## 1
Amino acid sequence: MAATASSNLAKGLNSIVGADRVRAPIDREARAADTIVEPASVEEICEIVRMCEADRIALAPIGAARSLAEIRRSPVALGISMARLARIVAYEPDDMTIVAESGITVGKLNAAMAPARQRLPVDPCGPGITTLGSLIGAAHSGPLRLSEGTSRDLLIGVRFVGHGGSVVHGGGRVVKNVAGYDLMKLMGDAFGTLGIVTEATFKVRPIPSDYCLAAVPYAGAADAFAAACILNDSLPLTNLDILSPALAARFNFTDQFLLLAGFSGNPPEIGYQARRIRDLLGARGEILSADEAIRSYELLRDIDFYSAPLAAQIAVPPAFLARVLESFGNETEFRAHAGSGVAQIIPGGKSSAEAAARTVARWREVARAARGNLRLIAAAPAIRDSIEFFDTPNPGALALMRRLKAAFDPAGIFNPGCFVGGI
Amino acid sequence: MSTIDRKLLDELRQILDGDAIVSRATELKVYECDGWTVEKSAPEVLLLPRSTAQLSAVLAALHRRGIAFVPRGAGTGLSGGCLPVNAPAMICTSRMNRILEIDFDNRRVEAESGVVNLHVTNAVKSKGFFYAPDPSSQVACTIGGNIAENSGGPHTLKYGVTTHHVLALEVVLPDGEVVELGGPAEERCGYDLVGAVIGAEGTAGIVTRATLKLMRTPENHRTLLATFPDADSATRAVSMIIASGIVPAALEMMDQLIIRAVEDAFNVGLPRDAGAVLIIELEGLEAGLTAYADAVAKTADLAGASNVRLARDEAESALLWKARKRAFGAVGRLAPNYATQDGVVPRTCLPRILRVIADVSHRYDLRIGNVFHAGDGNLHPIILYDERQPDQVRRAIDAGREILKACIEMGGSLTGEHGIGVEKIGEMSLMFSFDALRVMTELRHVFDPMERSNPGKVIPQPGTCVEVAAPRRQVPI
């Protein structure tokens, strides 16, 4: 960014929030934004947005910057850190809803609800660093999606700062609400390209009284997926995941594919499901319970695909996932949410930029043929340039998306140029 | 704006089947309102396309002439969603009623938007699946209507609403362009336009096709009827059941007025002297149900239940649910007319709102019965009146408005299921700020820049006579 523009930005920010809340990016933040500002109020965010619109300064909301660092090929001028907007605004256990500012992490939120034995049933990798804003904007999800859905299904109210620095809210505090248009769906998976989410209201759920995890190894992926299908048809599982051998190794299973089927409920339900799993799959593997089950589940949840030189997420109709992953070859590592048709994948072997681009292109073709899609999770800077983060939507849908972007961000400042179709 | 003239009708005859154009006043009268009968207005022409191609050509023809239209499914809506407002053409999807594909392995169904809701479950239940959104009108209402209103039903508490069970849409935009949104995979690519169209009440073009998600039918269920001396103890029980960590599949409440109406009409064995009853449905693995049912019964006792009855068999369970689902029909014998509201309050505010409703009933001198989805705070106060008495009509409308305002004051919503339509358009500014309504309009214009798709719905137009009876208030989200 030109020196004059940069110093104008600094001056403007100083006058809005003060110099002590404007800073340089740290570590991976530098891939996301050139300057970080830490507003302490929604009003400050409104002023910042108005200033950036006037001067055409690109900005984006920042949590841990994991997703933003990957989605952007070059940093935005200004990262708006939500670190100081991280309070719980209202929590009523009897209503099973919680309102919180978007800078709070999933971990902190759930710690606050634990005494009432409730939780926001989402499980992104590293809930301790995943902010609500990121959960919504980058659509993070984990194994629990099978039984609880994703943040899209749980978000019932949203407040965001939009163009003109206006504060807009949609939805509300009640779980059934069809008044007006569903702005929550727009903000979900939008990577901050339509506005800055400042507050979110979620449905919450009771923490199950008991949780167990069946860990069953298989020599071949096909057998593991067949077993998963049988279980999914027979039991209302909490999560159902399959790990490729390299990832299964952290569970002390070597050279084997690992099926991890989690189940919950009251003691009779737990007993029944454990027996049923043994009946259906035989006496192989083990069934973990109590703390051991939870520790293993957390290990599964926290597999960090962001640290891989190249990682992607594929989504296809669930019955197609097995053969899709098989076609990627033995070297591909994966964590497959078998009942959902979603998997995170890492290519095997070392990759040059060209080889990586070819691999992703091939994966995309396979996903498309299976009526699904693929997006990147992470790519080292050397190979990021040659790979599109997202698939391209069909022309009719993309045209609507462009109109949406133009309407919500006429100045083109909200995380521009890195969304689908170059939006 | 040009109107439905002979030239247009000739052009439409080239597109549609012979009997798919209805323009005689006597035949159009059937379409002059939906389930919200307070206002009536017949379209000038009714069109019944059989396919997406026909519907697309129809909208293109209307678009060329600048003619606005109203989509209609089965017309069971309760907020005037398919009442023509400055829209001479009505397009009914009832002939687009094919289930196109059932994919059991992937638990997906592809259906035309005119398919009746219950027909989806009927088509898959023998294989152990069901389609979760179950509005009380499901024997008649269509998938397209469900999508327009983001319909729920009693089982919303556990399974969510329509938007949780729809993965993809084929939509014909107001200019006739056909677009595909979403897909059969669970993750989307780009903005969630499927989510934007669901609940848009027909203002984003006309949905012609949808990919639905199926769920596995739970292994078994239990139905309990808990009887309470008054509404307060019943609502206390609702809170306590939820607080105990149990999420029933459904949790419905009926007060004395409704209980007596249902008993007089159907004689199902509800306790006539009860202040209120709760119907509690538990679903899941058979292994766990006895313990859950016991826990719920115990909780209801602690809350002050005078009796808790567990349905002994399928027949008894079906009877209890029949009582609930026929409640609206039963009140027909109590008064010539009724108006119902659809407001929502946080569950913890249920005792307060029921007292407000009782107070409104007293002050407006109208009987009001309550049957509603207590589990998610979605009320249905049934205001009884006689439309032959103009003063009663006025009082019924005002009573309804006062109840809705109270819902907003308690942090709730104008509508949990029925939509805004025409009915509640005047109350939108009680719930949403000017900026929120502006942004919603901007969203609408992405799909329908000329506002020809179901005009006059959802968002109040500037300059229309809207009685703002309360100061605009930024409602906490």
## 2
Amino acid sequence: MPRYLIRRLGQALLVMAGVVALTFVITRMVPGDPAVAYAGPKATPEQLAEVRERFGLDEPLWVQLGAYVTDLLSGDWQTSLHTRRPVLEDLYHAFPASLELVGAGLVIAVVTGIPVGVLAARFKGRLPDFSVRLTSMLAVSLPVFWLALALQTVFASHLGWFPVAGEYDSALDTTSPLTLWTNITLVDALITGNWPIFTSTLSHLVLPALVVAAYPAGVIAQMVRATLIEEASQDHARMERALGFRETTILTRFALRPALNPVLSLIALVFAYAIVNGFLVEAVFNWPGLGRYAVNAISHSDTPAVAGVTLLVALVYVLANLVVDLLQGVVDPRARAR
Amino acid sequence: MRWHKRLLVAGIAGVVALAASACAGGQVRGAGGTPQPSTGQESTAATTTENTAENTAENDATFVYAPNLDVVTDWDPATSYSNEIIALANIYEGLTRYNAQTKEVDPLLATEWTSGDDGKLWTFKLRQGVKFHTGGTLDAEAAKKAIERTMKAGGGAAYIWDAVDTIETPDASTLTFKLKYAAPMDLITSSGYAAHIYDADALEENAEDVEDGKLDAGTGPYTIDTWQKGQETELTLKAFEDYWGGWQPEQYKKVAFRVTPEITTAWQLLRSGEVGFVQRLNPQLFEQAGMTEGVQAKQAPSFQNLLVLFNTADGPLKDVRIRRALQHAIDYDGLVAALKGAGQKASGLVPPGLLGHTAGLEPKQDLEKAQELLQDAGYGPDNPELKLTLTYAQGDEDQKLLVTLLTAALKQVNIDLQARAMAWNAQWDQGKKGGQDIFVMYWYPDYADPYSWFLNVFRSADDVQFNLSYLKDKEIDAAIDGLPRLTATDQLAAHQAYADLQKKIIDEQAAVAVPYVQTYQRALSADVQGYVDNPAYPNVVFFHDLKPAG
């Protein structure tokens, strides 16, 4: 096990080193002068020179790379050209909101995806199976931007059941201010017992979380269906049938547990994917998360911020993969040998 | 069973680690980061009781503005040079304010002014009884300190004060500017950037609080309530009770800026009544806004126009006949029609609402004339093909439209236009080296004066910055240099000089084509009265002017 652990950690570090090099290239190789991007189009040559010196833009490239890596490790992820604050600080405000949204989306996806997958497997080849497969296909293939706009127009704008956009009613900031502990609004509202913000966030969360949930729910449902059907044809299922268990019982009580193993690793992968996929959802619902930050950064040619988002997302990907691999190593000894 | 438990433990460990890593240590949101008791209603409680003290018809509503970009990047009124103008223009005031409808300068912190010595001496009389948000009183000494601090900081648009030699304060209510060269100080003091009068001492002493948006030192009707960078509701303002202009019960005492980058989302928020003003709509939504109950759509020309700059120094366009042919090849009417209201046809270099705007300079497409000119220059349908390069802004749909129409039109006269969309930095870098035949860009002034179109874009320069037509003409330079003095002393003559210059640059030199002036397309809630678009202060809503309808 330790050797497996070390090998996987080494691989993860290698990937991160690659991403760091890539983000460095992004920040230095974009056409145009980064000093101009910071100082604005009408800056004087003196202002530009000052900016160049402040950010070390006049040093040779390899010195800059060295400084970049040292800075990253010491927690200095450069200063955003647009917000003019440390990128890490910006991310630390934006990322928790994304986690909140993606977390809620995944909960919905798991809670709906697994039972629906079981349902499809139980009635394989019949109407429930057919409709599940059709809806999950739709959920996976509908463009998330379109889905977000459609839900917003119908349920928020026309029916008025949910708020149009935002994380919570900002007027609550003055009537019942929220004390931050985790920066995840819903969690903070819960642990500090701030019910007005909790309920407001919950109602704001429904529509975007549903959109985020669509893709993972579809994938999970299909995966559960497929693995369950495979599991139900195994020897143990045959024996359970011979013992007189009903088909539903066989699926839920005996086949589901082994079938969930691959679903688990799928969820972790889908989690990282959902964060990026959530960028568009955040744009439509004005969710103050990583996506909105990234879109803002890109539209301002804010390369340090773009690099910061890239690094963070890469880190989440690598971590999610690492955790899954290690977990599978714990669960399934065969994985360690792979 | 066992792995379930392990998973659970791992999951909990993960959540705990995450929470710990994201731990914000008990800060209170909306209070500028200062911990407050969880009941913490002091700030709002204070304002609401003040507001509701006497009058029952008090307007308790918050006016919500939906900008499409972050609001504040720089809180210092000396160096601010960005989007925050939409907030700062309501917090800070200058000596004067430009009125785009009358094309004149209106009094603000100064009540009257005179100029002498051929536009090199300006005397402003200050308004009495003006209080700073910091508690101090405005007098000539304070105004002088503010302007000198801005000049010294030298950031943002501080260059507007370049003409100032010395500032004197003969008495507490008189401010005298002695200039190095003639300049229209009444226009300059109306600038939306760098012309704010503020309590300079308070800003210096509380620099950190100012940077964090906890304190401002203006004289305007509103003052900062809360600022949370990166949050959806980034900024809220509250009424400054001692405002010299006074308060009517129906005026909005609270303002919020709710950052909404997605246009369709902003539109939905407006329809559902959650916001009161949307800064920018696209033509489709704008048309819809005009037909939607509860919403009013407003349209006004901006001070920003599109310039198609021809390379007069190098390449085939050195030949003025080809430049003229290109001017004739642009489908101006088709372009404006395709913009569906996002732009209106330009008449010369100076947009309407500014001194020097001249009617009757509207261009028209004339392909026959273009062909004739090209034939003359040895190109055109029966001659060798002419290859031209053009650069324009990446991601700008309006510019792309121009390029598409122009490419098609030029094809008919045997010109192959190779257009390249580029990020501004890259486009500009290449432009400074003269790397293209045609350079497309927007231009706008920093204050309500057309001078910058001429000084920055068409005055000859060895070190090219914005002179991207590379025009070098001594006569034009001399005329440009005479503009500030004329503007300061003789508006009529200045107008004539601007008109003549435009004819020279556009008709004689054919250095540029100006297809259209951008139009602002705003939408606001139907129950709001008093909104007037003032392009001198782009995207600014003067909230003190607004009141609920009925």
